[in-house]
C-alpha cells in the first residue's frame, strides 16, 4: 500500500508532465480502436446489405462469378433461361420464384453526359425491379418502371446528383444506348455503402442488359412457411438434378458469404494498413514515455535516495515507478478507447464525403476492441517505463543523497554503441544484398530485414550519433547566435541519450516519408521514361477512372472512324488454359490485339519475330514463361479458349520481360481469337491505342475526344495526359500515407515538447542563475527554441538519410520489374527538412514561454 500511495502522490504531483505522455497513449490507442470499430462497422454494413438483398435460395448459372472473381468481359453477365423458373417452381417448399437481372457493365449519364456512377469505387448496378428487391428497398417516390422509357433510381444517387422524377437518363451498355425518364425513387432499408442502383422493367432489362429475351442472371426463390433455407436448397437442387452442370444453388447465408468475398480483401487491406500506422505511432510513443520517466526519475534522485536510506528496497523503488506507468497506461488507454470510437465516427463522416456511405446506426463495437486497446496501451506503457524504473532501482542511497543522479555507466554506453553499430552494419549489409538480388521476391526479404535492423541500429546508437550530428548542426546554425547558441548546443549535448531518444521518435516517421517519396518519385520517373522509350502510340484510350469496365462497341466504332487518325489498335484480354509441350497446364490471359500493336508498343524480342504472332495460328510469350517451361520458337502450345474451342498455336516469338509495360504478357491476333471464341463470348476491348496522321496530333486528339464525348466512361489521353494521370495516382496514394504517418509525427512532436518541458524544470536553478547574471527573457526563450530546433533537425537528418537509403534499395527491386530510374525528390526532402525546423520551433513555444516567466529568486532557491 505504501508503494501505491507513493506512486499515486508522484503521479498527481507531475500530472502536467504526465499529460503529454498520456496524449501519446491516447492517440495510439485511439487509432487502433478507431480502426477496429471502423472496419467492424464496414463489415456490419455490408453483411446487413448482403443479407437483406439475398433471397432464401438463389439459383445462378454455373459460370457466374463468385466473390471477388471477375465477371465476363463481353459486357453481358452470365444468364440462364426463363424455363428454369418452371422447373424450380416444382420443388417442394417453394412459395414463389422470380427471375432477376443484375449487371455491372453499364454506365448511366444525365442529360449533360455526367456519369451517375459512384466516385468512391462502388459499383453501378442495373437490373429489373422484382418483389425480392422489397427485402432491402421501398419505393418512396413515384412508381416502379412500367415500360422501356422508365427507370427507377435509388434515393442516395438521386440526392447526390439532385435527380428528380421525370428527368431523363441515358444508359450505356455493350448492346447500345437507350434513354429513360425517372419514374420512381427507391430508398434502401439498410445502409447503402455507395452503390448506384437503377431499375428497369424486365423486358427492357433483358433486351438492353443481356442482349436477349427470355433470360435472367439469377432466380430468387422464396421458401414456404416452415421450410428452412437448407431444406429448400436440397429440394431445388434435387429438382434441377438433370441440369446440375448448368446451375449452382445457394442459400441466403451462402450468397451473402459469396458477396462478402467481393469486398473482404478491400476491407482487410484497409484494416491492416491502418493498424500498421497505429503500430508506428505506438513505437514513437515508446520513446516519449521512456524519456518522460527517465527525466522524472532523474529529478527525484534525492527523493529516491531518502526512500532507500529509510529502508526501501530496489524492488520497491522499481515497483513505484512501474505503478506510475500503470496508472498512466490505464488513464491513457481508457481515454484512447473513447477517442477511438469518436475517431471511427469521424472516419465514417469522412468516407461519406467521398461517396462511401456509412451510418452510425451500424456502429459496431466488439468486446474485443476495448480489450485490445486497453491491453496494448497498458502493456506498451509499462514496458516503456521498465528501463527508467530499473535505472531508478540502481541508485545507491549515498549517491542519491549527494544528488549524484542516476549512475552513469560508461561501460554500458560503450556496449550500447557497439551493439548499435553491429545492428546498423548488419542492416546495411542486408540492404546491399537486397539491391544485388536477381529476383524481387528474394530481395524483398532482405529489404525488410535491412529496414528493421538499420532502424533498430540507429535507435540504439542514437546517443553516439547525437554527440556527432548535433555538433555539426550547431556549427552550421547556432554559432552565429553567439553565447546563446553555444548554450543551446551544450544543452542538447548534455544528455545524448535523451536527445537521441527524442530525435529517434521523429526519425521513424520522417524515414518512412522519405522512403515512400523516393519510391513514388522513382515509379513515376521510371514509368515516364519507359513510356517515352516503349510506347509509340500517340493516344491511349481506356475506361475512365480505371473502372475495369470494357469499352463499348459503339464507342470503339466511333473512335475507329475518327478523322486525322493513322490507325486505332484494339486490345482484348482472352482467358485461356495453356498446356505446354511438357504437359503443364496454366490459366493465362492472352492479349489479343490488331497487328499494329507492334508499332504502338516497342517490346524487345529475345527470339523469333513478334510479327509472326499475328500470322496464322501463332502466339508470343514472355521470356520468364518461356524459360520456366523450356519453350523455344516453333514449339506448339495447346490453348483452350474460355467458352471457346481448343487449338494448337505455334510459338512465334519470345518477348523480353525487361519492361514496365506489358511485362509477362502473351500475344496473339484478334483474328486468331475470333476463330476459336464464339462472337457472343468474345471479350470487348479493354483499351485502344491510336496514332495521328503526320502533323495532325492536335486535330486527332480533338477528334478522338469528340467521338466519345457522350460516353463519360471513356478516357482519351495523349502521352502528356497519361504521365499527369500517373503522377496524380501516385500523389494521391502518397498523400493518404503521409496523412496516416502524420499521427506518428504528432506523437513525436509531443515528445519534443515533453522533453523540453521536463528539461526546463530540471534546469530551474541553472536558469535562475543565468537570469541573475544578465540573460534576458528573450535570450532564454531563444536558447530553448534553438535547442528544440537542433533536436528536431537531428531527428530529421537521421530519418531522411535512413529513408532515402531504404527508398534507393526498394528502387533496385523495382528495377527488376522494369522501373529502372532512381529519382530522389529533393524538393520534398528539403521541404521536410526545413519543415522539421519549424516543428522544433513550434514544440518549444510552451516550454520557452514557461521558462521566460520563471521568478529569478524562486528559481535560484530551488533545490
Question: Can you describe what's shown?
Answer:
- The protein is an alpha+beta fold and 863 residues long.
- The chain folds into four domains: 56-263, no CATH class; 414-460; 463-536 and 719-863, no CATH class; 550-712, no CATH class.
- 57% of the residues lie in helices and 16% in strands.
- The chain contains 27 helices and 24 strands.
- Strands 15, 16, 17, 18, 19, 20, 21, 22, 23 and 24 form a ten-stranded mixed β-sheet that branches. Strands 4, 5, 6, 7, 8, 9, 10 and 11 form an eight-stranded mixed β-sheet that branches.
- A hairpin with a 2-residue loop joins β9 and β10.
- The longest helix is centred in the first third of the chain and has 48 residues, at 252-299.
Envelope shape: globular
Chain-averaged pLDDT = 84
Estimated radius of gyration: 34 Å
The total count of helices amounts to: 27
Helix content estimate: 55-70%
Number of domains: 4
Number of strands: 24
Termini separation? 29 Å
Give the biggest sheet: 10 strands, mixed
Q: Spans of 5+ residues with little confidence (pLDDT < 50)?
A: 404-408
Residue share in β-strands: 15-25%
- Class from secondary-structure proportions: alpha+beta
Region (Disordered): 60-80, 109-128
Organism: Streptomyces silvensis
InterPro entries: ABC3_permease_C, MacB_PCD, Macrolide_Exporter_MacB
Domain MacB-like periplasmic core: 19-238, 502-706
Amino acid at each position: 500500500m505504501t508503494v501505491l500511495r507513493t506512486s499515486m502522490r508522484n503521479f498527481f504531483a507531475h500530472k502536467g508532465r504526465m499529460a503529454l505522455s498520456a496524449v501519446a497513449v491516447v492517440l495510439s490507442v485511439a487509432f487502433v480502436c478507431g480502426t477496429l470499430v471502423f472496419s467492424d462497422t464496414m463489415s456490419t454494413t455490408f453483411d446487413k446489405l448482403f443479407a437483406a438483398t439475398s433471397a432464401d435460395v438463389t439459383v445462378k448459372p454455373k459460370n457466374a462469378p463468385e466473390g471477388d472473381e471477375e465477371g465476363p468481359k463481353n459486357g453481358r453477365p452470365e444468364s440462364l433461361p426463363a424455363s428454369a423458373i418452371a422447373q424450380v417452381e416444382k420443388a417442394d417448399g417453394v412459395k414463389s420464384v422470380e427471375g432477376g437481372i443484375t449487371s455491372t457493365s453499364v454506365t448511366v449519364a444525365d442529360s449533360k453526359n455526367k456519369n451517375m456512377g459512384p466516385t468512391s469505387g462502388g459499383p453501378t448496378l442495373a437490373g429489373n425491379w422484382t418483389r425480392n428487391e422489397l427485402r432491402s428497398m421501398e419505393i418512396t417516390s413515384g412508381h416502379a418502371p412500367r415500360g422501356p422509357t422508365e427507370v427507377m433510381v435509388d434515393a442516395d444517387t438521386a440526392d447526390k446528383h439532385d435527380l428528380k422524377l421525370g428527368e431523363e437518363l441515358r444508359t450505356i451498355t455493350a448492346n447500345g444506348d437507350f434513354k429513360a425518364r425517372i419514374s420512381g425513387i427507391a430508398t434502401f432499408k439498410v445502409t447503402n455503402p455507395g452503390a448506384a442502383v437503377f431499375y428497369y422493367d424486365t423486358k427492357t432489362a433483358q433486351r438492353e442488359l443481356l442482349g436477349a429475351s427470355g433470360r435472367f442472371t439469377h432466380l430468387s426463390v422464396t421458401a414456404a412457411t416452415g421450410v428452412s433455407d437448407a431444406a429448400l436448397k436440397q429440394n431445388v437442387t434435387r429438382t434441377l438434378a438433370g441440369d446440375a452442370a448448368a446451375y449452382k444453388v445457394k442459400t441466403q447465408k451462402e450468397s451473402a458469404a459469396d458477396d462478402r468475398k467481393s469486398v473482404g480483401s478491400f476491407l482487410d487491406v484497409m484494416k491492416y494498413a491502418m493498424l500498421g500506422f497505429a503500430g508506428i505511432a505506438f513505437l514513437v510513443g515508446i520513446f516519449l514515455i521512456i524519456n518522460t520517466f527517465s527525466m522524472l526519475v532523474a529529478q527525484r534522485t534525492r527523493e529516491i535516495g531518502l526512500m532507500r536510506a529509510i529502508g526501501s528496497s530496489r524492488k520497491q523503488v522499481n515497483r513505484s515507478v512501474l505503478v506510475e506507468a500503470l496508472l498512466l497506461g490505464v488513464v491513457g488507454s481508457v481515454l484512447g478507447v473513447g477517442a477511438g470510437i469518436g475517431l471511427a465516427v469521424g472516419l465514417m463522416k469522412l468516407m461519406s464525403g467521398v461517396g462511401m456511405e456509412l451510418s452510425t446506426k451500424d456502429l459496431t463495437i466488439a468486446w474485443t476492441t476495448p480489450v485490445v486497446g486497453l491491453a496494448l496501451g497498458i502493456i506498451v506503457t509499462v514496458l516503456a517505463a521498465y528501463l527508467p524504473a530499473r535505472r531508478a532501482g540502481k541508485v545507491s542511497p549515498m549517491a542519491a543523497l549527494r544528488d549524484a543522479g542516476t549512475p552513469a555507466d560508461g561501460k554500458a554506453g560503450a556496449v550500447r554503441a557497439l551493439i548499435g553499430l553491429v545492428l546498423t552494419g548488419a542492416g546495411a549489409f542486408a540492404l546491399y544484398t537486397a539491391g544485388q538480388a536477381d529476383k524481387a521476391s528474394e530481395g524483398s526479404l532482405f529489404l525488410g530485414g535491412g529496414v528493421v535492423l538499420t532502424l533498430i541500429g540507429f535507435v540504439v546508437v542514437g546517443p553516439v550519433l547525437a554527440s556527432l550530428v548535433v555538433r555539426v548542426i550547431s556549427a552550421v546554425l547556432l554559432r552565429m547566435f553567439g553565447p546563446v547558441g553555444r548554450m543551446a548546443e551544450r544543452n542538447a549535448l548534455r544528455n545524448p541519450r535523451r536527445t537521441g531518444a527524442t530525435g529517434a521518435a521523429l526519425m521513424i516517421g520522417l524515414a518512412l516519408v522519405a522512403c515512400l517519396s523516393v519510391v513514388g518519385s522513382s515509379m513515376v520517373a521510371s514509368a515516364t521514361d519507359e513510356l517515352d522509350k516503349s510506347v509509340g502510340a500517340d493516344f491511349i484510350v481506356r475506361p475512365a477512372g480505371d473502372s475495369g469496365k470494357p469499352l463499348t462497341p459503339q464507342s470503339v466504332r466511333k473512335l475507329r472512324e475518327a478523322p486525322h487518325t493513322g490507325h486505332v489498335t484494339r486490345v482484348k484480354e482472352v482467358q485461356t488454359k495453356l498446356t505446354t509441350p511438357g504437359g503443364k497446364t496454366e490459366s493465362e490471359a492472352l492479349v489479343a490485339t490488331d497487328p499494329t500493336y507492334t508499332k504502338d508498343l516497342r517490346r524487345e524480342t529475345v527470339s523469333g519475330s513478334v510479327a509472326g504472332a499475328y500470322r496464322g495460328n501463332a502466339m508470343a510469350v514472355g521470356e520468364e514463361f518461356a524459360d520456366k517451361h523450356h519453350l523455344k520458337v516453333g514449339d506448339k502450345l495447346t490453348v483452350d479458349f474460355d467458352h471457346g474451342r481448343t487449338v494448337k498455336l505455334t510459338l512465334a516469338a519470345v518477348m523480353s520481360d525487361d519492361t514496365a509495360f506489358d511485362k509477362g504478357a502473351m500475344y496473339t491476333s484478334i483474328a486468331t481469337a475470333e476463330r476459336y471464341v464464339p462472337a457472343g463470348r468474345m471479350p470487348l476491348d479493354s483499351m485502344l491505342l491510336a496514332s495521328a496522321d503526320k502533323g495532325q496530333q492536335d486535330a486527332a486528339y480533338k477528334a478522338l475526344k469528340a467521338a466519345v464525348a457522350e460516353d463519360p466512361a471513356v478516357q482519351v489521353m495523349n502521352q502528356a495526359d497519361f504521365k499527369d494521370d500517373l503522377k496524380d495516382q501516385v500523389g494521391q496514394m502518397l498523400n493518404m500515407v503521409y496523412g496516416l504517418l502524420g499521427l506518428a509525427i504528432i506523437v513525436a512532436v509531443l515528445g519534443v515538447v515533453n522533453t523540453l518541458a521536463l528539461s526546463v524544470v530540471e534546469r530551474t536553478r541553472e536558469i535562475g542563475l543565468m537570469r541573475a547574471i544578465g540573460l534576458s527573457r528573450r535570450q532564454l526563450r531563444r536558447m530553448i527554441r534553438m535547442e528544440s530546433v537542433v533536436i528536431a533537425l537531428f531527428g530529421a537528418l537521421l530519418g531522411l538519410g535512413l529513408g532515402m537509403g531504404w527508398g534507393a534499395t526498394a528502387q533496385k527491386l523495382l528495377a527488376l520489374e522494369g522501373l529502372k530510374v532512381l529519382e530522389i525528390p529533393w524538393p520534398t526532402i528539403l521541404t521536410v527538412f526545413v519543415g522539421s525546423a519549424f516543428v522544433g520551433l513550434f514544440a518549444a513555444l510552451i516550454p520557452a514561454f514557461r521558462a521566460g516567466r520563471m521568478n529569478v529568486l524562486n528559481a535560484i532557491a530551488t533545490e
